[in-house]
Design goal:
179 residues; Nucleoside Triphosphate Pyrophosphohydrolase; 4 helices; 28% helix; NUDIX_hydrolase-like_dom_sf
């Protein structure tokens, strides 16, 4: 079953983070109920993969000023049918930043989030069931801005609120600093 790995990771996450058990259960229920949960065509929503990319020192996180959402966010995007969500997050981080030498800090889930993507043109409003992994840039911190972004920036994690007050972003900063 192509969803088994993700369901196992979500179950482990739920056990390790009881304070996030309700959101984890919603994700488990969504993935269990939708065989095509990794496909963009699923109109109610789909699984996405994101990357919390820190610099070699672990003091800064690479943010994208997302064109469509006009917000500073972590790198990431659609799984496009890939049930290896860590692989999808890796692919998205490289595509959006041009960074070589990204290394997962762990193969375990770093954070989860379910957020509404607003209606746009012919696309109805839908949820992104976002699975987030932590990465470290080990070879270089020189990035390339993709056409999906207005800009990229290395933001000091302790001062992330200068870029965003979005709850899930601040939660990831706190998790990183508390690790």
């Amino acid at each position: 079953m192509h969803r088994t790995d993700l369901l196992q990771k979500l179950d482990a996450y739920q056990n390790e983070r009881p304070d996030e058990a309700a959101v984890a259960q919603r994700l488990i229920d969504f993935v269990s109920a939708n065989a095509d949960c990794f496909e963009r065509h699923l109109k109610i929503g789909h699984v996405t993969g994101s990357a919390w990319v820190v610099n070699q020192a672990g003091t800064h996180v690479l943010l994208t000023h997302h064109k469509k959402l006009n917000m500073w966010l972590q790198l990431g995007g659609h799984a496009d049918g890939n049930s290896d969500i860590l692989g999808a997050a890796t692919r998205e981080a490289i595509e959006e930043s041009g960074l070589a030498g990204l290394k997962p800090v762990s193969t375990d889930i770093f954070d989860i989030d379910i957020h509404l993507i607003p209606e746009r043109k012919s696309e109805p409003a839908h949820n992104h069931h976002d699975i987030r992994f932590a990465f470290q840039a080990l070879e270089t911190e020189e990035y390339v801005v993709s056409d999906e972004s207005h800009d990229l920036a290395w933001a000091e994690i302790q001062s992330l609120e200068k870029y965003t007050t979005e709850e899930s972003m601040l939660r990831m900063a706190s998790k990183w600093l508390d690790r």
